[in-house]
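Incident review: delayed structure delivery

Summary: a single-chain prediction request sat in the queue longer than the usual turnaround. Root cause was a stuck worker, restarted by the on-call engineer. No data loss occurred. The affected request and its eventual output are reproduced below so the record is complete for anyone auditing the incident later.

Affected input:
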Amino acid sequence: MPVLIVTSHPDDWPFEIPGVDKIDAWTYLTSPEVTDSAGSRSTRVFNLCRSYRYQSLGYYVSLLAEARGHKPLPGVITLQDLKTRSVSRLIPDEIDELIQQNLIPLTSDEFTLSVYFGKNFAKRHERLALHLFNLFPVPLMKYEFSKREGRWQIRKIAAISGAEVPEGHREFVAESATRYFSGRASSLKSPRRTRFDMAILQNPEEQDNAPSDSVALNKFVKAAREQGVYAELITRDDSGRLLEFDSLFIRETTAINHHTYRFARRAASEGLVVIDDPVSICRCTNKVFLAEMLTRHKVDIPLSIVVHRENARQIGERLGFPCVLKKPDSSFSLGVVKVKSNEELKAHLEDFFGESDLLVAQEYLPTTFDWRIGILDRKPLYACRYFMAPGHWQIIRQEEKGRGRYGKVETLPVELAPPKAVKAALKAANLIGDGLYGVDVKESNGRFVVIEVNDNPNINSGYEDSVLKDELYRRIVEVFVRRMEQKRARYDAD
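Output delivered after worker restart:
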């Protein structure tokens, strides 16, 4: 039984979908055939019970599904989110803006949106329906909106059962459900002979700035398959599917105020193995945090100042010119500038302080290349020389339309990299966690200084994999497999 729809009463779901079985809640909770079925860990449970209130049958369907190692939709964490009094606090800014744009044409001050497996009747509401489904992954939902002071707000959200679907909506619900499940045709046609499922989050629109190119992504999928893991490339539109998987591997540029962080946080809270984990994203994507933490733990870094409006005048005195000014959340050389004079400094400070109350200023250390040491599970994985982009002082020269011009990359065995560079990288990365990191180290006048720790390092075909080749992908997947096995062993022991 790879896919189950569970209802309060058998008549609550009067539709037949190929590859999908239907069962009532009481049978699911009590039948030995269900509770003791072999291979049950691959079972997807779609909970369409009439109530999800605490300690109701619907609540226990999701709760015991998780206890059995099944993958329920909705999960218990989602059920807890539904009980939150102030729903608006759970709505990210980008979805709030989508709500405003989507509902502008409405003339009334009240509106109800039905979301059936991420779909809505009206084409113009489809994108909003999908994003709300991804935020609250519940098969059947109703959202009530009201407009106050010119802005739309979610007044109430409620999960609904199959029995509550209006007669006029039932055909559409059946079509939406069929489309939803047909998108998983590979899993419905026959049970996969794999131990675990892995989601690889990627963004095809990132192009040159993506942490992994398409060839590398396919090599991850292949390495997973060779170790008995089903790996699937997903995008931001698939967040509502996270519970289908045992692990999440983020291969998209991460940021805090961003869907990548919400993916990581939800996946971690649901018990998935996650790289990049949300703690690593928080720590690595803020350069103020990194500067403070690395300094406190006596990791050698360039002379640095955490800058605020009161001490900004000290930058020139302490660091001299040129120096480097960084926004806290800068990545791919964006938000990082070389400042040559007090006049340039004042102009950039005015701009940067408009986004953040704290900045980082560092001494400028000119080098022809940076060391990039890849760290995985607290062990060195690969070593590269990242050379500066032609005619530029950074390894990436950002150009129009978000495209970057990179310097050349030389990869060499870790044992041939300077031991001091590897040691510094390990010390810095171990302060972050036990995930996958790329640590940038500058070698200047005999010093090896850590520039930053990246939680989402580049792994591209023909570059970082030049020495280890397919072994690089195998080692990364191996860490996922070991952690998934450990989680399963703890579950079995309990």
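Verification: The chain has five domains: 1-83+161-186, 89-159, 192-279, 303-363, 369-476.
Action items: add queue-age alerting; document worker restart procedure.
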